[in-house]
Amino acid sequence: ESSGATILSKVGVQIGYMYFNCEKEVFQDERVRQALAMAIDIDSLNEVVYGGDYVKPNSFLTSSINFYKEMEPLKYDPEAAKALLAEAGYGDGLTLVAWEENDTTDIQRGEFIQQQLAEIGVDLKIYPQEGGFLTDNVNAYSGDPAETEWDVYIRGYGADTADADEMIGRFSSSTFPPVGGNYSFYSNAEFDECIAAGAATMDEDARAEAYSQAQNILWEDLPAIPLLSSCYTSAYNEHIEGIDLTAAGCFFLMNAKYVE
Fold this sequence. Notes:
Layout: E1 6-20, H1 30-38, H2 42-50, H3 78-87, E2 94-101, H4 104-118, E3 122-129, H5 131-139, E4 152-158, H6 164-167, H7 189-199, H8 204-221, E5 224-236, E6 240-241, E7 244-245, E8 251-252, E9 257-258
Parallel strand pairs: 2-3, 2-4
Antiparallel strand pairs: 1-4, 1-5, 6-9, 7-8
C-alpha cells in the first residue's frame, strides 16, 4: 500500500474449527456447545493471533465455497455463556481435554481459546500433538467415539473442490473416522438427508436448497465452532492487469497480462 501497489485479497477455502466430540456426555447437551461458542471472541482471536488478516466465517462454509450461506453471527457474551453452563449443571466449572497440532500459530490459537474459556469457568487442558500422531489417533480413530482421549479437537479443514458437499458433507453420520472427517462424531438424520439430496443431483437450485438447509441445521446444532477462514493477500504494480487469486491462494493468470 505504501508503495502504491494494488492489493489483491481472496478468502480461501480453509476454516479452523473447534470440534466438540458429540458422543461425549457433556456435549450431548446443546447448551454446553452454545455456551462455549458464546465465550470465544472470534474478532479478538483474529487480531491477537493472525494480525487481523483472517476472516470470520458466519457459516460452516467460507464465502469462496459453492452454496455458502451467511448466517447470523455467533454472539460473544461470556455472561450468557456462564448462565447456559449453570442451566446445564456445570455452574461450578468444567474440565475438558483438547488436542491440537504443535504448530506455533496453532498453539497460540489454543492458548487464546483456553484463556477465553477460563473466564466462564471452563478449564481447557490443551495437549499439542505432532501431525502424524493426530493422523493416527484422530483421522484414523476406529474405537468407540465416546472413548476418545480428547473432548475437543482444534484443527483446520479445507475443501479442495470448493464445494459444499466436501466441506460440510463430512459432518454426516456415515463419515465418522476412520471413514471420513466427521471429527465431531455428529449425527443428525435431517442433516444427513440434506447432504444426500445435495449429492444426488446436478440441479443447481436443488443443491442450493439442500445445502442451505444443511447449513441452518449445523448453525443451530453447533457440533463445532467455525473459528477463522484463511485469507490470501498479494500485491501488484501498474504493469500488471487482469490478475486474480484462486480460493486456494494460487495466482489465476488466464486473464493477466503485462503492460508497459
